[in-house]
Write a structure and sequence with these properties.
The complex is a heterodimer of chains A (about 120) and B (about 300). Chain A is mainly alpha-helical. Chain A has one domain: Arc Repressor Mutant, subunit A. Helix content of chain A is about 60%, strand content about 10%. Chain A has a three-stranded antiparallel sheet. The longest helix of chain A is centred in the last third of the chain and has 30 residues. Chain B is mainly alpha-helical and about 300 residues long. Chain B folds into two domains: about 80 residues, no CATH class; about 200 residues, no CATH class. In chain B, strands 1-2 form a two-stranded antiparallel sheet. In chain B, strand 1 and strand 2 form a beta hairpin. The chains are: A mainly alpha (about 120), B mainly alpha (about 300).
């Protein structure tokens, strides 16, 4: 992986902060059954080959934060092969929030694209 | 150099040494869950590759102990300042000023609710702990004593986990979010030994035993203070309908003069305010104590 400068890393980190919550909510909602952290992490790697710069360990605190805000709920189930796993599923509040967040994201993306493309055309 | 998952966990713990114990446990639990699952899957898919190499790849994607620690520390800071019941006190103070803030302080009312519940939970915990220890000790001479003892000690961990959730929910003190587990490579005899000899199990038992007297004290204090405060506050209104003397010696009756009744209500109000402050402080103290007994540092 090529070296990323400190300001770029900071920019990526700040940008990821909100988007991660959106992506996690979406992945958990889309799934028909509750998912545990590793399954979610694998889906993010699969769906975001380009540009989503974040270590997998960063997902777990966000999952806990979403749970604390009652957007996700979790239950701990024993696992045959190792320590128990925490399974997450979305709450009604989470589903409603996700609809709103998708709208916000869509508007924001369109606005940013407009600005950046406008700049190109200038 | 990280050669095993345990090495990673040790480094992660060092990186988080200044952090809250409960957050440390969250991070350790999540990390062990992730690394174990990832390693087991990677090994199933590539049995020819050495585990060390697989672990290196997994850690590269998961993040170094330092990176993991940073993400949890950031989260803990955010949660402390935004989501716990205690945080409402700050908002409440800004809204209504310092004087009335205690009445809209979630932490104070959480502590009141905890104190009222503590009589019931104290009796349950005490009875269960004493029964468990007594039955286990008396059955130890028989072979059946071992499973009974193990069952009781497991139930103590379950109860301490539930108490942790109650303490976190009502008193706003961060407690572990998950029950402890054992290394999958451990033999059964080692697991039983660890369960029976661990500091965590015995501290839970001590906590359950002292919860009975504490529960009685908290409950009595809370009910008495709040009842007396409310009674004093209501006295001017009640006096309109019923005349109840303060001193009644049969022949001599002495009641509060009517002009003094509003002052009695004011005294009641201040007593209620003071009581809420006191109960909140007791709740905070109890939360710290519960944490020191139920969240131990041995991993």
């Amino acid at each position: 992986m090529s070296e990323v400068s400190l300001p770029t890393r900071k920019f990526q980190k700040e940008l990821n902060a909100g988007i991660t919550s959106l992506i996690l909510l979406y992945i958990v909602e889309k799934s028909e059954e509750p998912l545990y952290g590793y399954q979610i992490a694998k889906k993010i790697n699969f769906e975001n080959k380009h540009g989503f710069s974040m270590k997998q360990s960063g997902l777990y605190p966000v999952l806990r934060s979403l749970e604390k805000n009652e957007l996700l709920e979790s239950s701990v189930e024993p696992s045959v092969s190792g320590p128990p796993r925490r399974y997450y599923c979305i709450t009604d509040t989470g589903s409603k929030a996700l609809i709103k967040w998708k709208e916000i994201w869509s508007d924001l993306r369109a606005n940013v694209d407009n600005i950046l493309e406008g700049e190109k055309n200038d | 150099m990280i050669k095993t998952i345990d090495d990673y966990l040790i480094q992660l713990k060092q990186e988080m040494s200044n952090c809250d114990i409960a957050t440390q446990q969250d991070a350790l639990n999540d990390t062990e869950e992730h690394l174990s699952t990832a390693l087991s899957e990677a090994f199933d898919n590539n049995p020819e590759l050495p585990k060390l190499e697989l672990l290196e790849q997994i850690i590269n994607e998961y993040g170094s102990p330092k990176e993991t620690a940073e993400s949890y520390i950031e989260l803990a800071d955010k949660l402390d300042s935004s989501t716990f019941m205690g945080s409402t006190s700050l908002k409440a103070e800004r809204k209504t000023g310092n004087f009335f803030s205690i009445f809209s302080d979630g932490k104070a009312w959480g502590a009141v609710l905890y104190s009222l519940l503590s009589l019931a939970t104290g009796i349950i915990f005490f009875t269960w702990a004493v029964t468990g220890i007594a039955v286990s000790a008396s059955m130890m001479i028989l072979i059946i004593g071992i499973p009974i003892t193990v069952a009781f000690f497991l139930s103590f961990r379950g109860l301490s986990f539930i108490e942790g959730r109650i303490v976190e929910g009502l008193l706003g003190v961060r407690m572990p979010r998950r029950q402890r587990y054992y290394d999958s490579d451990m033999k059964w005899s080692q697991k039983i030994k660890q369960l029976l000899l661990s500091k965590e199990s015995w501290f839970s038992v001590i906590y359950f035993i002292i919860m009975l007297p504490l529960g009685i004290i908290y409950f009595t204090l809370t009910v008495t203070l709040i009842t007396v405060s409310l009674a004093l506050m209501a006295s001017p209104f009640i006096a309109v309908f019923v005349s109840i003397p303060v001193i009644d010696l049969g022949t001599v009756e002495w009641g509060v003069p009517p002009w003094f009744l509003p002052f009695v209500a004011v005294i009641g109000f201040f007593l209620l305010k003071g009581s809420l402050h006191l109960i909140k402080k007791i709740g905070a103290g109890h939360g710290r104590m519960a944490k020191s007994f139920l969240v131990t540092k041995d991993k």
